[in-house]
Structures are given as C-alpha cells and as structure tokens.
Amino acid sequence: MAVTTKQSELLVITGTFQIPGVGLIVIPDFPVPAGGWRSLSETATIIRPDGHKFDSQLNLQIAHFNIRDLSVSADRRWRVVPCFRQLTKEEVPLGSHVFVCATTVEMLIADVVQ
Predict the structure, then answer these.
(1) In what helix (H) or strand (E) does residue 58 lie, and over which residues does it extend?
(2) Of the candidates 72, 73, 94, 107, which has an alpha carbon nearest to the alpha carbon of residue 26?
(3) Rounded to 5 degrees, what angle do the CA atoms 101, 22, 65 make?
C-alpha cells in the first residue's frame, strides 16, 4: 500500500466531520471545475502524520452549502467534497496526506492553479 507513480497528492487534511449515514467529510473541499464535475469514487492512499500508510475508498461528490449570506459567491455554495464512507476521525487525523490518481488531481485543480 504505497503511493504509486500514477498518484498525486490531492490534499492535506485540515479538518474533518463525521455525518452519520454519509461518512467522514474531509477539508479542504474544492471549487467545481469550469467543465463541471461528475461524482466519482476511487482508491486513495492516506499517509498519516505518524507515517502509517493505508488505502481507502474516497468519494468526490458535489455538495450544496446553504449559505444565507447573499454576498457569498456560487463557487463557495457548490463544492466538490471529499468523503471516506468507511473511516472515522480517529483513523484519519489532521495533517494526513491523501493521494489519488494524478488525472483526478488534474481535473480538480486545472482551473484553480494560476
């Protein structure tokens, strides 16, 4: 269970929250790419701060945040949200690195990188 040459780092976990029936949502989330987004699921490699590595299924899906402040832009209301259905906060501490297919990273950050 090592990071493969075909994987790239997607994120470093800065926050988590558990939603019963949904799973472990991890932060940061991502703006929806200009070309749109289709929810996907793939195997991610997680490297915890203590160096322990393991694989788990990661879902990347669009979510709508009901923000009442009208000055908040649409890109903050609609986000691509990473979610691990089978994991808990204890298994994925803050500071953990998440690696996924390089193509997925490219699709998510293509419009963000300046």
Answers:
(1) strand 53-64
(2) 94
(3) 85
pTM: 0.84
CA distance 88 to 79: 22
Distance CA 92, CA 61 (A): 19
- Give the three-state DSSP class for 107: helix
On whether the CB atoms of residues 100 and 7 are closer than 8 A, the answer is yes
CATH number where 101 lies:
2.40.30
Tokens, residue 87: 């994991």
pLDDT digit string, tens, across residues 50-95: 999 999 999 999 876 666 666 656 566 568 999 999 999 999 999 9
Residue 34 makes CB contacts below 8 A (sequence gap 6+) with 111
Which residues are paired to 110 by β-bridges? none
Q: Which residue intervals of 39-114 are DSSP H helices? A: 74-77, 102-109
Query: How many structural domains does the chain have?
Result: 1
